[in-house]
Amino acid sequence: MAQADHGRTRILDAAAYTLRHKGLTGAKLSDIAKRAGMLAPSIYHHFPSKDHLVEEVMMEGIYHNNRHIMAQVEGLGSSASPIVRLRAAVVAHVDFLLTGDDYSSAVARVFDDLPDEMRKRVLAAYSSFDNYWRDLIVAAQRDGSANQALDPTVVRKFLIAMLDSCSSWYRPGKLSPAQIAEQAADMLLYGIAVERT
Amino acid sequence: MAQADHGRTRILDAAAYTLRHKGLTGAKLSDIAKRAGMLAPSIYHHFPSKDHLVEEVMMEGIYHNNRHIMAQVEGLGSSASPIVRLRAAVVAHVDFLLTGDDYSSAVARVFDDLPDEMRKRVLAAYSSFDNYWRDLIVAAQRDGSANQALDPTVVRKFLIAMLDSCSSWYRPGKLSPAQIAEQAADMLLYGIAVERT
DNA sequence: GTCTATAATCAGATAGAC
DNA sequence: GTCTATCTGATTATAGAC
C-alpha cells in the first residue's frame, strides 16, 4: 500500500469501485479509466483485456475479505467457543463490506454475471472461503451450541447472501456499520422471534 | 392462463426465463425470441423496446409474488398470530421462488442492474410489497413475539436478500423446495444458535 | 506510459416484403 | 404477425505517434 497510486493498483482500485457501483456490463472501460485518471486504451498497457482486469479484482476481493475475517476470528484466541467464533465472522464480514472495501463489494455485485469460464475459476478460489464458513457452522453444531436440524450448506448459502446484500442497500444514517453488523449477528444467531413457539 | 401461448404472453414468459438465467445484459433479444419461437425483430410487433419488455416482466414478477404471499398469509384466517403470519410469508416466498416462477426470480436477478429510471418505477411498485413485510415484522414486535431490539427495516432488507438468493443456488437433490422453505423459516425465526449466550 | 486515431464486433432497433 | 436485410450506436480492442 506504500505505493497506492502506482499505475496498476490505481486501475485495479478504479475497477473495483466502478464494478461495485455499476455492475459488470455497466462498468465501461472508459469509466474505469476516467476514475484512474487516464483514457481507456491506456489500460491495455497494464492489462491484456477487461476480463483479465475484472478477474484480478475478483481474486483480490476474495482474498482481502477472507484474510480479514480469518484474522478477526483467529484473533479471538483458542479459548473462544465455536458460536463466539461464528458471531465474530458475521460481524467481521458485514463490517468489512460496509467500511468501504470496494473489492469485496464488487465480488458480491458482479459474481453472478461473470462469463462461465471465469466464474468457475473465481468460484474455485472462493471455495476455501466457503469451507471456512462451513467449518465454523459445523463446529458450533457439534458443540451443541447451534441447531443441528439445520443443513450446514443451506445455512451457509442463506447466511452469505444475507450478509453480502448489505453493501447494496446500506446508506450511512441512523445506524452505523458496526450497529448493522450487530443486528445481523443477533438476527442470525438468535432469530427474529423471542422464543420458540 | 387459458391462452398461454398467445404471442405477447409467450414472449413475456421467454423473457422472464432468459432474464432469470442470464441476467439483464446477458439476455439478448435474440435469446428471448428464440425461446419464444421467433426471431428478434418480431418482438417489436408486441413491445416497443427491450426496456419495455423487461419492465413488464419486473412488474409481473412483483405482483405475482406479492399476490401469492398475501394469499397464503391471509388464508391463515384472522386468528393467526403475527409470528405465525410472518413464518407463513417466509415459507410462501421461498416456495414460490423454488417452485418455478421465472418472473419473480428474474426480479431478484436483474433488479440491481436496471437503468436508473426504470429501477425507480419498479421500486415504487415494490414498495407496497415492502410495506407488507414491514407490517408483518412490526406486528410481531408489538405483539411481543419478535425481538424489539431489531430494526424493522434492517430485518426486512436482510430477510428479503436472504430469501431471494435461493433461486440462484438451489438445485433439486437432497432437499425439496418445501424443506428449504422450512429451513429458512427456522433460521430466520429462531436463529442458528440453540440458546442466547 | 499515455495519447489520438481507428478497427472490429455486437446488439438494439427500423424498413419494408410477404 | 413474422420474416430478411440493414442501420445505428456503443464498446472493446489495436496501431502507432509522442
TrEMBL record, chains A, B:
<dbReference type="InterPro" id="IPR036271">
    <property type="entry name" value="Tet_transcr_reg_TetR-rel_C_sf"/>
</dbReference>
<dbReference type="Pfam" id="PF00440">
    <property type="entry name" value="TetR_N"/>
</dbReference>
<feature type="domain" description="HTH tetR-type">
    <location>
        <begin position="5"/>
        <end position="65"/>
    </location>
</feature>
<dbReference type="InterPro" id="IPR041490">
    <property type="entry name" value="KstR2_TetR_C"/>
</dbReference>
<feature type="DNA-binding region" description="H-T-H motif">
    <location>
        <begin position="28"/>
        <end position="47"/>
    </location>
</feature>
<protein>
    <submittedName>
        <fullName>Regulatory protein TetR</fullName>
    </submittedName>
</protein>
<dbReference type="InterPro" id="IPR009057">
    <property type="entry name" value="Homeodomain-like_sf"/>
</dbReference>
<keyword id="KW-0238">DNA-binding</keyword>
<dbReference type="GO" id="GO:0003700">
    <property type="term" value="F:DNA-binding transcription factor activity"/>
</dbReference>
<dbReference type="InterPro" id="IPR001647">
    <property type="entry name" value="HTH_TetR"/>
</dbReference>
<keyword id="KW-0805">Transcription regulation</keyword>
<keyword id="KW-0804">Transcription</keyword>
<dbReference type="InterPro" id="IPR050109">
    <property type="entry name" value="HTH-type_TetR-like_transc_reg"/>
</dbReference>
<dbReference type="Pfam" id="PF17932">
    <property type="entry name" value="TetR_C_24"/>
</dbReference>
<dbReference type="GO" id="GO:0000976">
    <property type="term" value="F:transcription cis-regulatory region binding"/>
</dbReference>
